[in-house]
Batch of 3 targets.
Target 1
Amino acid sequence: MQQMQRCIAALAHERFATHVPNDDRTLDEVVEWIAADAGLELVRPRLTPTLLRLRRLAVGIRHIR
C-alpha cells in the first residue's frame, strides 16, 4: 500500500498507454493482438494443444525447487 502512488504514477507513463483487452481471449489471441498493435509479423505457428501441454509441463518441472 505504501508504494501504490508510485506504481500508479509509473503506470501513467506513455510507455503503458496501450492496454491489452484480455478478459475473454486466449493466450494466443493476446499474443496476436500485441504483435498486430506493434506492427510485427509472427513467424512461428501456434502450438498444437498437445505441444502446448508438454511445453507447460516442461516449464513447470524446471520451476520445481
Target 2
Amino acid sequence: MTRTHERLIQVIGALLIVSGLILWLTSTFRENMLFFVTPSDFISMPRDHPAKTGKRFRLGGLVTVGSIKKDGIDITFTVTDEKGANMVVHYHGIAPELFRENQGVIAEGVLKNDIFEAERLLAKHDERYMPKEVAQRLKKENLWKEK
C-alpha cells in the first residue's frame, strides 16, 4: 500500500469518527432539550408535538389569582398567559418562597390527563427584587428608597 492510500484511509477514518460524534451529540441534545411554552402555545400545538405526547417541557406564565389550592405539600394552581389561556398545574413538594398569585412561574414536568404534573417549580420575580437581608440593611443605613 502506498503512502497516499494510507493517508486517504486515515482521513476517511477521521471523518467517520467526527461525523459519528456529531450525530451522537445532536441526538443526545435533542433528547434532553426541554420546550418552553405558554398555555396559549400549548393549545395551538399539533397533537403529535413532543410536549403533547408525554415529553417533558417547561410551562410558563402567571399564577391565576384565587387558583392556589394547598393540601399538605400538594399544590394545585392555574397558570395563565396574556392571551387568556389557562392550564391546571399540580405540584408535589415545597413551593419556592416567591411563589404566589399573580406572579410569574415556570413549571417543569409532563402533561397527564389534561393536568400538568410539575416536578419542579421556579418562581420568577420582577427586576426590582431584592433579598430581604439587603433591603433591611439599606433601611437601617437610611439608604432605602421606596418606589
Target 3
Amino acid sequence: MSISEEVIKPKTDDLALRIIKLYKVLVNERKEFVLSKQLLRSGTSIGANVTEGQYVISRAEFRSKNSIALKEAVESEYWINLLFKSEYINQKEYDSLMADLKPIIKILISIVKNTGEQQKPDDK
C-alpha cells in the first residue's frame, strides 16, 4: 500500500462524517432537501469506493474503484459549490469543506495516474 493509499482512507472517512452532519443541518434547520441529498450520496460514495479499492484482486479493478471515487469527489465539489452559491452554506462552511475535499481529489488523481494500465510493448 502506498503512502497515498494510507492517507486517503481516513480523509474520506472524515469527509463522509462531515457531510452526514451537514446533511442533517441542511434538512432539519435550513429545509434544503434536494442538493443536500445529492451531496450525501456523492460525498459518502468517495470513501465507499476507496474502501472497496483496498480489497480488489487486480490493478485494473483498483484503478476503476479509485476512478469512481474521483468522479464522486468532483461531483461532491459541484454540489458544495451549488449549496454555497444558493446560500444554503456560508463562506466559512464552504471554505472548510473545500479544504477537506481538494486534497482528496489531488490524492485520487495521483492514485489513478500512477495505476494506469501497463503499456504493451510495441509489436514488431
